[in-house]
Description:
Layout lengths: L1 H31 L12 H9 L3 E7 L2 E12 L6 E9 L8 H7 L3 E4 L6 H31 L18 E4 L11 H15 L1 H6 L7 E5 L6 H12 L2 E6 H4 L6 H15 L3 E6 L17 H15 L7 E7 L7 H4 L6 E4 L5 H11 L11 H6 L6 H17 L7 H13 L9 H20 L6 E5 L9 E4 L10 H22 L7 H16 L33 H28 L1 H14 L1 E3 H10 L3 H8 L1
Parallel strand pairs: 1-4, 6-9, 6-10, 7-8, 8-9
Antiparallel strand pairs: 1-2, 2-3, 5-7, 11-12, 11-13
The structure holds adenosine-5'-diphosphate, magnesium ion (MG) and zinc ion.
Amino acid sequence: MNNLKKTLPDGSQSKRSFFWLGLLLLLFLFYFGSYLQPHVPEISYSAFRKQLTEGNVSSVTVQEDKLSGSLKKPMELGSGENKIGIKEFRTILPSFGDPKLLSLLEKNKVTINTKSEERSWFTTLIIGLLPWILIIGFFVWSSKRLQQRMGGLGKGGPFSFGKSKAKLYQRTSSDVTFNDVAGLRNAKKELSEIVDYLKDPSKFRNLGGELPRGILMIGPPGTGKTLMSRAVAGEANVPFYSISGSEFIEMFVGVGASRVRDLFEKAKKDAPTIIFIDELDSIGRVRGTGLGGGHDEREQTLNQILAEMDGFSEHESVVVIAATNRPDVLDPALIRPGRFDRRVVLDRPHKRARKEILEIHTRKTPLAEDVDLEVVAATTVGFSGADIKNLVNEAALLAGRKDKDKVEAEDFELALDKIRLGIEREDYISHEDKEIIAYHEAGHTLMAELLPKADPLKKVSIIPRGRALGATEQLPEEDRYNLSRSYLLDRIAVMLGGRSAEKLVFDDLTSGAGDDLKQATQLARRMVCQWGMSEKLGPVTFRQGETHPFLGREIAQPKDFSEETARIIDEEVRRIVQEMEEKAEKTIHANRQKLDVLAQALVEHETLEKEEVDQLLNSSTGDADERAAAN
Ligand code: ADP
Ligand code: MG
Ligand code: ZN
C-alpha cells in the first residue's frame, strides 16, 4: 500500500513530462512547418525568368510572395561534381513586383494555380492557444512541485529545491542519558518506567498493562525538557523522532497535517520509538480562540495529532513526548486519558541541582582553585539549567579573553553580573545625575539592610548597565518556595526605597523610579488578587487577565468580579503601596546619615559589596539611631 503510494506520483510525473514535451514539439511544427519542406530546391528569380522565356515552365503555384512550379525538362543546377538536374523549383517573387510576369506566363501557356495563406481554424486555434497552455501548465506544475516539497512527498527533479533542506523532522539516536541530566529526580523516576517499557514492550503487554501513549513535559524554558526527552530515548536506546511545533506551522495549507501523518507513519514502522513534539502549545492551543482568524492550519494539525494518537493499536510501542511551558493554554482534548495524560513537571533547579548542573557543564572546563561551585550555585537562585550552561560559557569566554588557562572565581562573578544586569555602558553621566543615582541606590540598599524580612544585600552599583542606571542586588539565602505576606511587604518597601531617598534628599522625583513603581504595584496587585492577602477583600482570588491576549482563552472570558470589587482592588493595591512608601520614607528619614555615607561612598567607588556596605553602616555615628528612637 505504502509502496504503491510512493511510486505512483513518480510514474505519472514522467508521463506528464512526455506530454508537455510533445506539446512543445507540436508548437514548433506549426510555427516553423513551412521551413521544414526543403526537398524542393530554390532557384533565383532570374533563373526562373530564363526558364520561362525559354518556354520550359509547365505550371506555377503562387502563394503570396512564394512561387513554386515544375519544368518540362530538367534544368541543371550547380556545377562540376555537385551538378544536379531538377524538375521542381521554388523561388521568391521580387517585392517591387514584375508587371510583365502574367503576360509572359500566358504567352507560354503555363498553368497558373494560386493558394491562399489562410490556415484552417484548427491550426489557428492551436497556434493561438498552445503558448498559453504551456505557460499555465508550467505554473501549475511548478506550484504543485513546491507544495509537494513542503508536504514531504516531493522527489528530486529539475525544479525541486532539494528535499534535504526542508527539515521535516529528525530521526536520531540519542547518546544522552540520565547521567547528563542533573537534578530532576522525580521526573527521572517517572520516566524510567517509560524507559523500561520501551526497552521491552512485550513484557508489559504480556501482563496486560495499559501502555503509556503521551507524556507531557511541563516546565519553564531552559529547564531541560528537550534534554530529558533525549535522555529517555538514550536510556531506552530507541530512535528519537523530533519535530518542533512551530515548524508545523508554515506557509502552505494542509502541510502541518500531512507532516504529522508522515511523522507518525515513519515512527510506527520504526517502533519502539519516541516521537518528540517540542513547543506543543504552538499547535495544541485551545481550538477556536485567539484574536482574529487564520487558525485553520493549526487546528488541522492538532486534529491530526489527536487522530494519530487515537489510531495507535495495541502492538505499536510508540511513545509521544511533548514539551510545553504553557500547559494552561493547551486544548483539553489533548490532555484527556489516552493522549497526553501523563504529566512530568520540570522545575527550576534548586541549589543542590544547580551545583550538579554546574558540575556537568564544567566537565570539560579547567577550573582554578578558587572556584567553589557550591558558592556559584548559591548565587544563581532562579537560574534554569540553560542559564547555568550560559553562565559557564560566559565565564570561560571572559577567562579566554584574558588569556587565562583556567576559569577563576572572578570570571564567574563578572559573567553573573553581565547576565543578571546586562553589559556595562560607557555613558557619560553628569556629577549631578550621578549623585541622584547614588542616593536612589543607597535608598534601596538601606532598606534592604534594615528591613528584617528583606532578601539580603549582595552588592550595589551605580555603573549603568543594560537599561538600568544603577542596581541594588539582593540574593535570597535559600530558594524560596513560599512567599509570606511580611516578606512581600518588605520587598515592596525596598523597591520604593530608591524613590523615597530621592524625595527626601532632593525634594524632587525623577523618572528613574518608574520601573520600581511598576514592579511594586504589580506585586501589590498579585498580593491582593492572587494570594488573598488583603483583609478587606478576604481569601478570594480575582482573575486579572494575566494571560497574554495572543496566548489563549483569557481574552474571551469576562471579568469575574463587579465594578465595585474592581474599585476596592484598586484601593487596596494603592493602600499597600502607599503604606510601604510611608514605611520607606520613615526608615530613610530616621537613618539619613547612613544614607549620606552610603551615597558618598557610591559616588566615589561606584560599586560596593555587601561587606563594604556593612562596614560603612556600622562605623557611621549612632545619632541616626537616636533620632529613630525619638520617632
Ligand atoms: P527546554 O527544552 O526545557 O527549553 P533544554 O532541554 O533545551 O530546555 O535545555 C537547554 C540546555 O540547558 C540543555 O541543552 C542543557 O545543556 C542545559 N540543561 C537544562 N537543564 C539541565 C539539567 N537538568 N541538567 C543538565 N543540563 C541542563
Ligand atoms: Mg526545548
Ligand atoms: Zn530603583
